[in-house]
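FORM 12-B: Structure-to-Sequence Request
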């Protein structure tokens, strides 16, 4: 997987690069043919109502948007959540198509799904697995916490 990170903050860019590569390795995405662009942008939460999102741009091109004002802890957690969506797209579990009116239709495991946000199977998986990935980062960066 080719990964590009865009952030005005050099330090934040480094953190995001390390997180994305760590999660990509854990999710077995390193050999994926997808390109992932990660963009840290101000006011994403305010404009869209959530901390991050992943969009399928082309057949093998994904864009992850992250709010640039997230705390480090929220950045670790949100990146984990969004990387699970990256995995879902890269493995063909999740697909999305835009209609002419701009509405997005989601297809999960071959079936169109129009459930509410928290009832969507891909969100259930992302919320359930984000904590595991988050904890792996904490154990890696702060091994004393395991004792």
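FORM 12-B RESPONSE
SEQUENCE OUT:
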């Amino acid at each position: 997987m080719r990964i590009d990170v865009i952030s005005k903050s050099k330090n934040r860019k480094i953190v995001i690069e390390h997180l994305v590569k760590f999660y990509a390795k854990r999710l077995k995405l390193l050999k994926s043919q997808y390109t992932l662009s990660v963009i840290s942008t101000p006011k994403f939460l305010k404009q869209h109502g959530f901390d991050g999102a992943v969009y399928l741009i082309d057949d093998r091109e994904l864009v992850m948007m992250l709010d640039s004002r997230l705390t480090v802890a929220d950045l670790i957690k949100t990146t984990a959540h969004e990387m699970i969506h990256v995995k879902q797209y890269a493995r063909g579990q999740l697909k999305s198509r835009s209609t002419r009116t701009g509405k997005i239709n989601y297809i999960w495991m071959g079936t169109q799904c129009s459930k509410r946000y928290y009832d969507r199977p891909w969100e259930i998986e992302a919320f359930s697995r984000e904590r595991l990935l988050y904890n792996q980062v904490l154990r890696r960066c702060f091994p004393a916490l395991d004792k």
